[in-house]
Amino acid sequence: MRLQREDIVTWSGTVRPPLTDQRLHPRMREGGIPTWIGVGGSPGSVVRAARYGLPLMLAIIGGRPQRFAGHVELYLRALREFGHAVQPIGQHSLGLVADTDEEAVETWWRYWQPVVAALAAERGFYKPDRARYEKELGGGALFVGSPETVARKIATVARDLRLSRFDLKYDIMRLPAQARARSIELFGHEVAPRVNELLAKEPARV
Fold this sequence. Notes:
Layout: H1 2-5, E1 8-11, E2 19-23, E3 37-39, H2 43-51, E4 56-59, H3 69-81, E5 89-97, H4 101-123, H5 130-138, E6 142-145, H6 147-161, E7 165-169, H7 177-201
Parallel strand pairs: 3-4, 4-5, 5-6, 5-7
Antiparallel strand pairs: 1-2
Helix pairs in contact: 2-3, 6-7
């Protein structure tokens, strides 16, 4: 953060002589490089983002996104206490957009299930059975479906968590290139405009 906001740098390490009052070259752009702090559930990370006055990105890959509402409140309160202006809040989640709900659901299951099964064996994650999968599709953190289904779910969490950005991780191990390309196309051409339309009718609370 000092590199972001200061012109003069003092630094010492173990592999070169120290730097004392050195000016940055090239000069950092005014306001620094756009930087977000990603948070996976730690309140301490939320407060750290607020301390530096940086935007917050909620990494939500399982469970109900709305359970992060307390983190959003903590972040906004901490920003005020640190004397910073309100910053953007985003969400990063997994998902796939296809032409129909059925296509998206079956395609994602085929490639998501073995990945999460491996994580369950290696790290103690939940076992990815079909019931758990369908729960994540409904009110959980997987954004999988037709453009309308995904758009409505994004608009809902945008309102609930006061989001100004949503980041879809549309790829997963061995997912065919055709499915990835179609997901990108549908997300840009249909999902994003529909989300904007839904939020124009009922905006997120700031």
